[in-house]
Structures are given as C-alpha cells and as structure tokens.
Amino acid sequence: MMSSWNALILIFGVVFLINETHSKNPGLKSRITSTGLNYAVNVALDVLSKDITSKKIPDQHGKSGSVSYDVKGMRITKFTKPTSVVSMVPNTGLLWKSSGIGMSLHGDFHYKYKKGIIRISDHGSFDLNAGGIQFQITLTIGMDTSGKPTIRSSSCSCAVQSTSIKFHGGRAWIYNLFRGKVAKTLKNSIEGGSGLLCKQLTNLVNVAGAKKMAQLPVEVKLAKKFLLNYSFLSRPSFQQNFMETYHKGEVDWIGGPMSTPIVAPPLPKGTGTSRMLYIWLSDFLFNTMSYSAFTHDLLKHNVSDKNIPGGVLNTTCKVKCIGRLIPQIGQKFPNSKVLLNLRSTSTPNMTSVNGSVRVDAAGDIKFYAQTPTGKTEYFLTLSASMSTTISITVKNEKVYAKVLKLPIKVKVKDSKIGPLKDAMLNFIISSVVTVFVEPKLNELGENGFPLPIIPSVHFVNTNLTIHQNSLLIETDVKYTG
User: Residue 192 is part of a domain; what is its CATH number?
Assistant: First the structure.
C-alpha cells in the first residue's frame, strides 16, 4: 500500500490547514475543500487498485503451542476498489470511510507439530477470499516544532462481511473439512479496532504517513539568494466543508533569517468551496523579499552604453545624445561617455487594491563621466520615484508578473554642473527606463514566483483575482504521479 499512501500524502500535502488565533497575520493562506480531499482519496485508491496485485505480502513465521508454521509467497490476486469518502471532524482532523473492499489472496504454508515422540509436518497452498470489507479511520493533523505537518491515527474500526479459505496439496482434504472454522477465525482476527486491518492502517498512518509528512519541505529557494518560508503558524483545525491553513509566508535571506519590520496585513476570510484549492498570497510575502533584497544591497545596478545602445549616453554627437540634450554635460565633458549608478533608497512596496497591483519605489541615480583618458568623474545625483502598475498571471504553479506602466519622476538632488531642467532630465531617465529598467523588471517577472506546491500536483481551471492586500488563486488540481 505504500505507493497509494505516497499518492494520498502528495495530494494532501498540497497545503495543510489552520484556523486559529495567531500572534501575527499570515503571509500565505490556503484552503482545501471536501472536493479536493475526496479527489485525493480516489487518486490514492486508483493507484492502490493498479499496484496492489503486484505487491508481495511479507512472509509470516510463528509458533502456537507445539505447532510452528511458515506462511510464504503471499500475494494479492484480486482487489475490488472500494467506495471512499473523506469528511471533516471539526477541531480534530479527517474521517476516512471506505466500504465494498474485496480481496483474494494466494499463499503457501508449511507447519511442524512436535510433542514428545510425535512428529507431524505438512505443506501446501491456500486461497483466501474476503468481501464486503469496510473501515473508518480518524486522522489527526498537527504540527511539529519546526512548523511541519504531523499526522496520526486517533481511532479505527473495521468490519468484514464474509471470508472463505480453501487449501490445496498435502492433507488439504482434511484441512478443508475445517475451513469454515478457519475462515471465521480469520474474519475475527481481521475485524475490530484491534484487528489486523486496523493495526496495518494505523501503522501505515503513524509510521509511513508520519515519515512522509516530515519530508514535506517548508522552505523553497528563490533566485539562489532567498528562502520562501511557508511553515505553519499553529496546528491545523477543520471546518465543515474545508480545511484552512495559515503559513508564515515570509521571504528570508539564504544566509540566515532576519527580523523584518514589515507587518503582514489581514487576509480576507473568503467563502468559496466549489474549487479544490484556494491560495491567498499576501503583499507581505513579496514585500519581505523586497526588504531582504534592499537590506542586502541587491537593489543597485550600473548602466553604461553597453546597456543602452544608440549612443544615448555619449556627451558629443550630431543628433541626439545626453550631451546634446543637456548642454552643460557636453560642454564640461566633451567626447566622453556617461555612466549611471542606480540604487534604491528604500524598500520597494507592493500594494494590491481594487483589482490592480502597484509597486512603489524610490532611489538615487548618480551620473559619472568617463573621459577619453579613462578618468571617471562624478557630476550629478537625481532622486527618482516610481509607481509601477503590473499584471499578475498564474501558470504552471508559478506567479508571473509583467510591467504595464512605468512612470518615473526625477528631481535634482545634487549637481556639480549648475542648475538643470527637470523636464529634460525626466526625458533622459524615461529613455533609460524604457530601454533598460523595464526589460530588466519583466525579465524578473518572467522567471515566475514558485508556489508551495509539491511535484506531481498541477493546477487546472485556475482563476486569479486581486483583493485588498492579497492575490487569490482558485483552482482545481490534477495528480500526474
């Protein structure tokens, strides 16, 4: 059953849930609905139905009184896929019910009876059939100290409608005289909360399931320098038709987390339950990434004529260049090239509101002249402010961004070449923005922002809407493992 459990955990592990009072607002919130959970169970059962007849059951060895026995070569020869449903248990977890399970099993046996001088041994094979098997198991979902999900079985019950067994080989004609009693004994051993099936299911959850949960990552690397932390803020809880989770949703520096002064705004509660999965992404998530980039001095860049072709940054020309548009530059630094140093002076801030996303940023632009002799001389600093409108899309489990409008305003902060007209400076900077800055921003947006979705789970019928301080992704999922 391991492959089916893998499939189930992979689907359940899309995102697990929480709904409690938190000391701070989450940066990422998710909701898995009953539709999503039942899809997960059916995926797991499909995998189980395909794989189970090729699986071998471990050999059994034991002793009862004077009889020692070996049961080997057991394999499932037939399996009937059950009807299954998962429902929420408020404040506890999930209740998984299955009924209509049918199974046939073939194996070989060997036994020895030894008492005093009496020695009896025999071997043969058997076919076991069980039908109308049903079980229900309660799964309690929690979290460990590192913010990862945990899972355990808190209760289990099982019933078997019928069992039959037939022996072959050796003294099979004798054993078959008692096969009704053997079948009843087997039925009794399978049924109940302490029966074989519940023991196996409980072990599957508490051991294999717990191991899978522990392997679910709570950090995703971004751009080789950042870590997206989506660990849980508190233990999960459950509503009637959905589970909901609140995650840290903060982007840290790979070298080590740092305390951010940015406060996450409240996320909308949301009422949707028709899709399998809902994910709310707070502006906080993107703004903590901006904060990490700014505090680690990443938001800077040098621009030269290599970045902006056409001689725009030349100080001497016949038609159009910076030295002709601003004569003071051409007069003081003839036959030179202008170098620009762009640097943010504050953390860029993203704001989602009224169906649109805006990024506000501010920085300094320093101008240097590189003379024919190779000397570099500073001569101007402009303060710049920018309010950018961007479009957001979701594809292949990533969030993509594209600049729609990139207006920028500049004014002189420091000048070594006398007074300058802001209008002409804005024209020059707009050219730089159009040719260089905007393509660079779109290049970053085209890389995509990975969502905390595990491999083999893909979005289908996805819709994205922009709310106050957040993006909402509504989607169904498809498992392709």
Answer: 3.15.10.10
| φ, ψ (nearest 5 deg) of residue 252 | -110, 165
Neighbours of 385 (CB within 10 A): 15
To the question of pTM greater than 0.85 for the whole model, the response is no
Cα–Cα distance for residue pair 267/269, rounded to 1 Å: 6
Do residue 65 and residue 210 come from a single domain? yes
User: Of 335, 326, 334, 427, nearest to 380 (Cα)?
Assistant: 326
Cβ atoms of residues 281 and 249 within 8 Å: yes
61 and 193 together in one domain: yes
Q: Are 12 and 205 in contact, with CB atoms under 8 Å apart?
A: no
Residues with Cβ within 8 Å of 222's Cβ and at least 6 positions away in sequence, in order, are 228, 251, 289, 449, 450
On whether both 59 and 195 belong to a single domain, the answer is: yes
The sign of the torsion formed by the CA atoms of 28, 439, 380, 325 equals: negative
Amino acid identity of 288? T
- Tens of pLDDT, residue by residue over 102-154, are 888 888 988 888 877 888 888 889 998 989 999 998 988 888 888 888 888 88
